[in-house]
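Exam revision sheet. Question 4 asks you to relate a sequence to its structure. Input first:
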Amino acid sequence: MYSKDELSAKNISELQAIANEMGAEATDGSNEESLMYAILDKQAEIGSMKNPLAAKRRRTRIVKKDTDRVYT
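Answer key, structure tokens:
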């Protein structure tokens, strides 16, 4: 995963190679900024597929026990 700072340090040919490798939608006439955001968007898509919201662990209910209560 690349951060925005790492991507901004790379030149446009490196960004195009990364975008093609990831399958990000980048056109040949793209500037550096649009390539950076296309890569970051694709990383977010890939990350969301790894951890879907439906796979959340369900909370368990704590059941109160019916016990004798002490009254004073």
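Marking note for examiners. The chain has one domain: 4-55.
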